[in-house]
Amino acid sequence: MRRTIQAVAVAVVVAAGPAACGIPASEHDAVVSALDAEKAAHAEEAKKREAAEKKLKVLKAELADVRARGGSDAERVAALERDLEALRASLGMSKAELDAARAKAAELEKKSKEFEELNAALKDEIADGRIELLGNKVRLKEKILFKSGSSKLGKDGKKALATIADVFKKFGTSKIFQITGHTDNVGKSSLNWALSTDRALSVVLFLTESGMAPELVSAAGFGEFHPVCPANDTPECRASNRRIDIILLPNIDLAAKPPEAADASPK
Fold it and tell me: Residue ranges of the domains in the chain?
C-alpha cells in the first residue's frame, strides 16, 4: 500500500514539473490518472481490511473456545494470542495507510477541480496558445498582455486576468500567488529586468483591483535569466521567453495561524 501511495505522488510531481511544460492536457491526464489510482488503491485496501477483520473474528472465536474448555492447550493459546496481536497491529497500520490515502485522494480531487475550473474559464485563450496551465502555474504569453516593450496591460490581457482573478478568489486564503515577469535576451539586461518587474507589478495591481487580497499576491521580475527556451535564437523561441507566470503556492503561514491571530491588529 505504501508503494502505491508513493508511486501516485511521484506521478503527480513529475507531471507537474518541467517535462509537462507546454502540454496542458497531459497535466490534466496526470491528475485524473493519479486520482483514479488512489480510488483503486482504496478499493483494494478495503478488501484486504475486510478479509483481515473476518480472520480476526475467527481467531477470537477460536481463542474463546479454547479458553472455555479450560485452556489446557497452552501452546495453542499462546499461538492464537500471537496471531491476534499481529493481526491487530496489521489492521492498525492498514487503517493509518488508508487514512493517508484518503487524505491524498481528497487533495488530488481538489487539485483536479481547480484545474478543471481554470481550464473551462480560459478555454479560448488556452486553445489559441496564449495561456498555458502547467501544474501549479498559469503562464500568460506576452502577446495577450502587453505590446512589445510596454508594461501597460491591453484589453485582451485585462479580460483574461479578470477571469483568472474570479477563479483565484474562490481559493480563499489557502494559496498565495507569485507573479513573475520574464523577457527574452534582446537589449540590455538592466532594461529587461526593469521591464519584467514593471509587467509583473502591473499584473499584481490589476489582480488586486479585481478583488484579490493584496497580502496573497507578490511580484518579481527575472528579466532574461529564467528562459523556457534558453537558445533565444529564433523569433518563436524568444517569444516563448516573454511571459508572465502566476505560481500558486500553499499559504502555509496563514494556514498555521488561528483566525483570531490572523485578524488581530497591534494594540
Answer: 2-121, 130-259
- The whole-chain average pLDDT of the chain stands at 77
Q: How would you classify residue 64: left for phi > 0, otherwise alpha for psi between -120 and 50, otherwise beta? A: alpha
Asked if 154 and 223 count as a contact pair (C-beta separation under 8 A), the reply is no
DSSP letter, residue 242: S
Task: Quote the pTM value.
Answer: 0.58
Give pLDDT tens digits for 80-128. Answer: 777 777 777 766 655 666 667 667 766 666 666 777 888 888 888 888 8
**Higher model confidence: residue 253 or residue 13?**
253
Range 130-259: architecture per CATH: 2-Layer Sandwich (3.30)
- Interacting residues of 245 by C-beta distance below 8 A, sequence separation 6+: 137, 138, 139, 140, 179, 180, 182
The angle formed by the CA atoms of residues 32, 34 and 39, to the nearest 5 degrees, is 95
